[in-house]
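yo

u said u wanted the structure for the complex thing, so here. seqs first:
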Amino acid sequence: MKKLNYLLTVAVLIFVSAFTFIQSQDWKVAEGYSIKFDGGDPSGEFSELKGTIKFDEKNLADAKFDMTLDVASINTGNGMKNTHAKSEKWFDAEKYPTIAFTSSAITKTSTGFEAKGTLEMHGVKKEVIIPFTFDNNTFAGNIEVNRFDFGLDDGKHPKMGTILKVSITVPVTK
Amino acid sequence: MLKTILIQSLVAGILAAVAANIYNQIYFFATLVDYENIINPGSLVGFNLLVSLLAGLLYLLLTTLFKAKGAIIFNFVYSVGSFACVIIPIAITLPLSTPSPELFPGLTVPMVFFPALSWMTIDPLFKKVGFEIKTN
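structre next:
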């Protein structure tokens, strides 16, 4: 009888261990993504996005976002403002060439998902939560960023909006 | 007089549009940046004709009000107005789909002066009174 129990236990362990090999799916950023920000004036977008995406709705424990934006790719629709935005008075693209987000935990919510992680911009790291959805192989999310939290202020534009509303749409492929 | 001013306005507008289209082509070949969705032959003709016709109305108004000095005032106002309009293409926010917005002022700032330049170029042709050089 003991022998039978032992064999049964081994069989169950082998069966269960098979599920430990289930991993999050790797995704690649596809064409047509957009990272837009709205701060009143200026508003615009970043056109260069890179990174790794591991995401499986059924295995959120292993899901991870590690994304970077190229600061030099900022486009406000005005050449003078672009130059100004990249200068040391604002994003200082030479010293801080990227904006990075690295997730630490991804959880399911009633409306979709939430990615908790660290946003690094202008040399400042801050914990943020990005709510997002994932439909038709496209991630879509919105986040509000207080530019003062990241030292984005040259002291000469008091009327400029404090909050930057960032809209993220990232189609992905395997 | 009204007919002369109208013809001068139309001729000035057409000449400015031709110059603007030539410059647009040169700029495209020099930079390989296409602003077709904003600056195209149609918009250039429309813009230059509109500005020239408005300038004609202003000329009519000033010459009616100030007689002979009206033309002098008009030239001054047109030049200063054109110079002031330089700020428009520099400050404008283009659609985000437009490539290389930093090159846009290089295309459009010179064009701002084309209507005034064209008007002043053909202006002597529409004047009845001119200088007469007497020789012995």
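Chain A has a mean pLDDT of 87. Chain A has one domain: 26-173.
cya
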